[in-house]
Specification:
By secondary structure, the chain is mainly beta. Helix content is 13%, strand content 37%. It is built from 3 helices and 9 strands, in the order E-E-E-E-H-E-H-E-E-E-E-H. The strands form 2 sheets. A 7-stranded antiparallel beta sheet has the order 2-1-5-8-9-4-3. Strand 6 and strand 7 form a beta hairpin.
């Protein structure tokens, strides 16, 4: 097969911006993720895609649990930077939040700048090379307030945000993934 792949076509896919968190053996962490999506309505199921090198990946793999906080457009870049460009092995990101609660699964739920929050238990996972897609049964979900969800396009175009190298949507200065 002789297929041409113009990676710019992938830039047209839309994404949201979320904090995905998990914990294991009393330790907790969270990270920015842009690949979270609903996969079924009945039963309610979602999927998250996490880089294998991330601490959050380790905790989800070991605990089989994760939470998702849907971020509002008003989320400041300093908050996104904390969860998107800092490593949980080096700092306790959750201690720098104003509002974190423990969910029914025992996982941390980041409430700062969140419109809604979801807890899930992993029922399957797919190895996709550098990342794992975790498939989860929703065990709890709550709308916290009204607002506009932060999209990846808004983050890039209005907030002028970038992607870390371990993000599935990373673009180098040359535009390559």
């Amino acid at each position: 097969m002789n297929n041409k792949i113009d990676k710019k076509a992938l830039w047209d896919l839309s994404y949201g911006m979320y904090i995905v968190s998990s914990g294991f053996n009393g330790k907790q962490n969270g990270q920015v993720a842009n690949t979270v999506f609903q996969i079924t309505a009945e039963p309610p199921r979602i999927a998250v895609c996490i880089n294998k090198g991330n601490l959050t990946h380790e905790y989800i793999s070991k605990s089989g649990l994760f939470t998702v906080s849907v971020l509002d457009e008003s989320t400041p870049m300093t908050f996104i930077g904390l969860f998107g460009f800092k490593c949980g092995r080096d700092i306790d990101k959750l201690s720098q939040c104003f509002q974190v609660k423990t969910g029914s699964t025992g996982c941390p739920i980041v409430m700062d700048y969140a419109l809604s929050v979801i807890e899930a238990g992993v029922f399957n996972q797919i190895d996709v090379g550098t990342h794992t897609v975790f498939l989860g049964d929703v065990v709890s979900a709550e709308v916290l307030r009204e607002g506009r969800p932060l999209t990846y396009a808004y983050y890039q175009e209005v907030k002028k945000g970038k992607s870390p190298k371990n993000a599935p949507t990373y673009r180098s200065d040359t535009g390559e993934k």
